[in-house]
Specification:
This protein is mostly beta strands and 110 residues long. Helices cover 10% and strands 35% of the residues. A hairpin with a 2-residue loop joins strand 4 and strand 5.
Length: 110
Amino acid sequence: MNRRAARAWTAGHRSQDADRCPGGQPREEAVDVPVHQRYAVTLPGRPGAHERPTVFLVHLSDNVAPGGGRVWTDATGQWRLRFEGEVATVLSAPADYTGRHPCLEAVPMP
């Protein structure tokens, strides 16, 4: 089956397979993704200003995100982020953050 046919078939069967991961495994039995304790998060510079990006470190906290899930915070506690892969979603940020970039690039750190 080619990709186009697979996508068409998947689109028609998405509702009955919603409780399954890719490959047909039930979600409860899916392999857990490793949780990184620290990430380096890149905050882009101001558009058009040719500013360098700002990079800051966040670490796994004991907090729980709205809707469940883990929360990572920076050392000051001003940044609270949730991760999906290598994308950070901003849950809360310092007052001077404009929110222009709600999702930020992140790299797992050792």
